From TrEMBL:
Classification via Gene3D superfamilies: 1.10.1070.20
Organism: Catenibacillus scindens
This protein's name: HipA-like C-terminal domain-containing protein
Length: 108
């Protein structure tokens, strides 16, 4: 999630902000919810570092540092190329997304 939050500039990921899919028959956790609470995307999106990463507290890391740490542990398994047309009239956000993705790819 730290990788995705860094790429999208989501500044609202904290320990109480996670979703889980649960098997209703067994009441067991199946997985993390694929996308959870991304209404704060593209905040603190004017620098390559991003905001302070809340998911690693009490450690103090930027979103970039936390994402690079995650890439180091699990890699960056991009399934397909990003359709940058999705950014439509958001040229600055598209540019920062590309910079951050390139930054993570170089960090591998």
């Amino acid at each position: 999630m730290n990788i995705l939050d860094y790429l999208t500039g989501n500044t609202d990921r904290h320990p109480e902000n996670w979703g889980f899919l649960v098997d209703n028959e067994t009441n067991r956790c199946v997985s993390l919810y694929p996308l959870m609470d991304f209404n704060q995307c593209f905040h603190a999106y004017d620098t390559i570092e991003g905001a302070n990463c809340q998911t690693v507290l009490p450690k103090r890391l930027s979103q970039r540092a936390a994402a690079l740490e995650a890439v180091e542990h699990i890699g960056l398994r991009q399934k397909k190329e990003m359709d940058l047309d999705l950014f439509e009239d958001m040229a600055l956000e598209r540019e920062m997304f590309q910079k951050r993705l390139l930054n993570l790819n170089r960090g591998q």
